[in-house]
TrEMBL record:
PROSITE patterns: PX, SH3. The gene is Ncf1. Residues 352-361 have a biased composition (Basic and acidic residues). Residues 156-215, 226-285 form the SH3 domain. The keyword rRNA processing does not apply. Transmembrane segments: none annotated. InterPro entries: NADPH_Oxidase/PX-Domain, NCF1_C, NCF1_PBR/AIR, NCF1_SH3_1, NCF1_SH3_2, P47PHOX, PX_dom, PX_dom_sf. The keyword Cytoplasm applies. It comes from Podilymbus podiceps. This is NCF1 factor. It holds the Pfam family NCF1_PBR_AIR. Residues 4-125 form the PX domain. GO terms for cellular component: cytoplasm; NADPH oxidase complex.
Length: 389
């Protein structure tokens, strides 16, 4: 029998896993030429890395030389924060991508890179789990959606961003930009540094200098979590701007709002302010070498510090003041509620006391004692003295 190749790849759905931390994996049923069917699990970041390497192997078919000759399908870059909604919405895109991939010319669809990626791995057979953590949650794709993947997806487009200002790189791993440059985002790190490519150049770029071509990017940001998530400060930072916080290594804080430029709104006691996300680590999360390396980098610039930004959008970004963060804080609202209840209780006590005093019968004036006979004879008039004689 000849070399193994894939006949069909079917997306079944995705799993929400909780070990070693919460993440999502897609489930694929891979049908091989020997009529065997294997179930595999892959993260989207893995799939995207596979896609990038495939494009490098076939530069003509990927459109790097001439876009008109591109036959390898597009695949959007991963978002910096992959939640359940983005995982679910991406299913149609992946289903169509796999369908088109298998139907490419044999030199691509049957190459070792494709075959190796979709082969069964040991962790596909026995996923790493922890008995103390709840089991994965499975979300299957509806059966009707599997029949025709083109019915469940829109057009697949690359995530292209435009530079809003000039940026001079400060290290060899970064990439310089000119205002108006268009780049493809390969990786969005929550640190605020994004890995981008532009023609033959690649490197890290501050997210604050980029904006998407199709509109403001607030939709990619999570909504503020006023209850706050517990984080530990892994690297000290001294505030430069008035709305930033100065924190020391080892401090425990609460993250309220995770922003794309890598500057998160955090709360320490009752004070809120911005702090570099790359210097923070979620409580209970293991410290990895990648995170340690990130903390050795400098903090990215903030959006508000970019001068002469040539934005293509008239719509300004959503701005939330520190006072708004504070007033919407669950702690602040609870303290206000407690104060109101205490005030109401005191008012009720005063009202009851006043009512009791008003309902109490009023005391009658005391009758003065009758003066003695000697006192009348010494101090009263003649007519009064005659009445007692």
């Amino acid at each position: 029998m000849g070399d193994a190749f894939i006949r069909h790849i079917e997306l079944l759905g995705y799993e929400k896993r909780f070990f070693p931390s919460q993440h999502y994996v897609y489930m694929f049923l891979v049908k091989w030429n020997d009529l065997s069917e294997k179930l595999i699990y892959r993260r989207f970041t893995e799939i995207y890395e596979f896609h990038k390497e495939l494009k490098e192997m076939f530069p003509i078919e990927s459109g790097d030389i001439n876009m008109e000759k591109r036959i390898i399908p597009h695949l959007p870059a991963p978002k910096w924060f992959d939640g359940q909604r983005s995982t679910q919405n991406r299913q149609g895109t992946l289903a169509e991508y796999c369908y088109m991939l298998v139907n490419l010319p044999h030199k691509i669809s049957r190459c070792l890179h494709v075959v190796s990626f979709f082969k069964v791995r040991p962790d596909d057979m026995n996923p790493i789990t922890d008995s103390q953590i709840k089991k994965p949650e499975v979300f299957l794709l509806p059966k009707d959606a599997k029949k025709n993947p083109t019915d469940i997806t829109g057009p697949i487009v690359l995530q292209t961003y435009r530079a809003i200002a000039d940026y001079e790189k400060s290290s060899t791993s970064e990439m310089a930009l000119k205002a108006g440059d268009m780049v493809d985002v390969v990786e969005k790190s929550e640190s605020g540094w994004w890995f981008c490519q532009m023609k033959n150049k690649r490197g890290w770029v501050p997210a604050a200098y980029l904006e998407p071509m199709d509109g403001p990017d607030e939709s990619e940001e999570q909504e503020p979590n006023y209850a706050g998530e517990q984080y530990l400060v892994r690297k000290s930072y001294t505030a430069v701007e008035e709305d930033e916080l100065t924190l020391k290594e080892g401090d425990t804080i609460e993250v309220i709002h995770k922003l794309l430029d890598g500057w998160w709104v955090v709360r320490k006691d009752e004070t809120t302010g911005y702090y570099p996300s790359m210097y923070l680590q979620k409580s209970g999360e293991p410290n990895t070498s990648v995170k340690s390396e990130l903390r050795n980098r400098g903090a990215p610039p903030r959006r508000s510090t970019i001068r002469n930004a040539k934005s293509i959008h008239k719509q300004s970004r959503k701005q939330i003041s520190q006072e708004t963060y504070r007033r919407n804080s669950k702690k602040y609202i609870q303290s206000r509620r407690n104060m109101k209840e205490n005030f109401q209780n005191k008012a009720n006590v005063i009202t009851e006391k006043t009512e009791r005093e008003e309902n109490k019968p009023k005391a009658q004036p005391a009758v003065p004692p009758r003066p003695s006979k000697d006192l009348i004879l010494n101090r009263c008039t003649e007519s009064t003295r005659r009445k007692i004689l």
